């Protein structure tokens, strides 16, 4: 069976070489040495100012919204995983959707200003599939209206934009280290920021506001990652160059073999070093998508309708109509992309797709 | 160094015998087979109707409050770990404290009714140190005022009350499987309930509301536990009888050797099979506590001021005065209690305490 993704696993021996240290220290959580080491390695590798590893990729968005949302309206994208909108609603804010760019698939920065009201407190935009939003325009709007910017950078491990890590942009950026991600900790995620003051607030927020065992800085919750998760993160990180180069090969295969006459690939934004995180293709109609999906499934190949449905249409949200996002969401399919996907399978996938769309 | 607690670790080989299955399946999260097996084992062992294992012990309280709190006032105890109050505030509800019983240390059920207003939506009470609240009285009040009951049963693994698991009481009970707990998954926790309808809501809430990959039941968030955590849970569970019997020996040593003339132990509620989760002692004054703490520390023994401060006094909460809780919190110390704590160390601890208080 070929799924849209497959978790990259180091060997069990490699995992053990790290997790053994948790046994030696008899220490399984609460920012143990493996977590600190992983934070340090990622900080250096990504060249970011501040990082806090968390227990999943959603809690960082929740924490950022708790600090900056103030129960207000959050300008956001309808084209993202449900976590983006769910975090807004969960944190008692209101998602206000702005439609997406039809090719970059990120929030359409030219439509943000008209969505801002006196209740708007922040912009939460997703660098979807690792493709950067129009960061310059967004920062300029945020500055003009005194809004905070949170980037859901769940898909962005390893993305550089304008020669630096994409995590360096926004007041806060978040990432997911879910098992299906390029870099992962099984379940996990991270908070990134540049500002020391914001870092302090994020840090306290992720551990109950503790300032030592008996004192509290303020409100906080439990977003701590376990040492078991950090251990696999360290073991995965040892393979990070291979992971990128192998994924790049799959992407290049699709790029060279798919017939793009009736098929649109993701348009990567200028000045981006992309990370080969997903391979989305947009068909001319949902009917074509369903036909291809059916044909692939008959060969035990399971691409994924990422992201469907458009978040403004979800039952508990019911946002305004978002024609572009709804249209793209109905026609987009992410093709299998992972380390170890054999060329023979890639050939089967591309030939099935090419046969149907041509 | 002797800390208040020490994580129980199965051998690395025992852990590997479980975690290997995650490798074999290439499956690290999203309710994998280890998580399902652990849920099944715990469900049978505890004889409970429904269990959902989560990524920590706080998110279950948050989920229960999201379902039942409705942004209202939550009647709660000031004597608990900060997570209890933090979850209330985080979930946009208001904690309304009710003082505790001076001996059981649980919420004083006789004072609950006077704290109820038209805004009260739920009671969130902690079975502190595994000691049951006055469940009958609380259920009766809840029924009279149509309130939901959430039990923070973080400390309660293995506690039976009136011949059944304490997790069976309340609309929802929560537990912590933090590394410091009797049974643990490194970081982790669980939701328990009896009602199928509530279970469905809890279940969807803990996984983004997903009803299959493309449909949603409603609002949800990420509370999923990783297979790495469930693997250690399974390995710890294999030792559960030893864990209880070894902890019981430590408790019995303290019970038999401490001089209780000027020292109060926890009074366990009637009809309770307790779990030897903590060994709290209440001194006549904070000065005595500090003197004993200092003396123990000079011998590299670190008991813990659980729970201090009284939650109504925390800076971001500022609840009404709670004389009993504040007084107890200033005078209570949890003594070291874990599997493998040598009798020689126990003797040192009890003799230091007895010397000072007599």
Automatic annotation (TrEMBL), chains A, B:
Biological process annotations from GO: polysaccharide biosynthetic process
Top-rank taxon: Bacteria
Residues forming the catalytic site: 181 (proton acceptor)
UniProt KW Zinc-finger keyword: no
Entry keyword set: Pyridoxal phosphate
InterPro entries in alphabetical order: DegT/StrS_aminotransferase, PyrdxlP-dep_Trfase, PyrdxlP-dep_Trfase_major
Entries under Gene3D superfamilies matching the protein: Type I PLP-dependent aspartate aminotransferase-like (Major domain)
Coiled coil (residue ranges): none
N6-(pyridoxal phosphate)lysine, modified sites: 181
MF-aspect GO terms: pyridoxal phosphate binding; transaminase activity
One Pfam family of this chain: DegT_DnrJ_EryC1
Stated family: Belongs to the DegT/DnrJ/EryC1 family.
Name this polypeptide is given: dTDP-4-amino-4,6-dideoxygalactose transaminase
């Amino acid at each position: 069976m070929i799924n849209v993704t497959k978790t990259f696993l180091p060997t069990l021996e490699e995992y053990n070489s790290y997790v053994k240290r948790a046994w030696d220290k008899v220490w399984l959580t609460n920012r143990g040495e493996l977590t600190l080491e992983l934070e340090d390695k990622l900080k250096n590798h990504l060249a970011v100012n501040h990082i806090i590893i968390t227990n999943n990729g959603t809690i960082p968005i929740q924490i950022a919204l708790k600090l900056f949302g103030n129960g207000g309206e959050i300008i956001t994208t309808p084209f993202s995983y449900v976590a983006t909108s769910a975090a807004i609603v969960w944190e008692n804010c209101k998602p206000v959707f702005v439609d997406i760019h039809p090719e970059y698939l990120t929030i359409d920065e030219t439509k943000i200003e008209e969505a801002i009201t006196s209740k708007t407190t922040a912009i939460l935009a997703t660098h979807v599939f690792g493709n950067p939003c129009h960061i310059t325009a967004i920062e300029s709007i945020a500055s003009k209206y005194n809004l905070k910017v949170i980037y859901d950078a769940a898909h962005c491990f390893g993305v550089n934009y304008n020669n630096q890590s994409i995590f360096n942009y926004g007041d806060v950026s978040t990432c997911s280290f879910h098992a299906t991600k390029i870099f992962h900790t099984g379940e996990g995620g991270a908070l990134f920021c540049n500002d020391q003051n914001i870092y302090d607030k994020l840090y306290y927020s992720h551990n109950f506001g503790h300032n030592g065992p008996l004192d509290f800085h303020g409100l906080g919750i439990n977003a701590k990652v376990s040492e078991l998760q950090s251990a696999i993160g360290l073991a995965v990180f040892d393979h990070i160059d291979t992971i990128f180069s192998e994924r790049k090969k799959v992407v290049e295969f699709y790029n060279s073999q798919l017939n793009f006459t009736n098929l649109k690939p993701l348009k990567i934004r200028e000045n981006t070093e992309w990370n080969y995180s997903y391979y989305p293709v947009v068909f001319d109609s949902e009917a074509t998508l369903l036909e291809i999906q059916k044909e692939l499934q008959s060969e035990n190949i399971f691409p994924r309708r990422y992201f469907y449905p458009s978040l403004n249409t979800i039952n508990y949200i019911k946002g305004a109509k978002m024609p572009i996002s709804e249209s793209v969401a109905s026609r987009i399919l992410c093709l299998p992309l992972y380390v170890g996907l054999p060329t023979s399978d890639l050939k089967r996938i591309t030939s099935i797709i090419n046969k149907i769309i041509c």
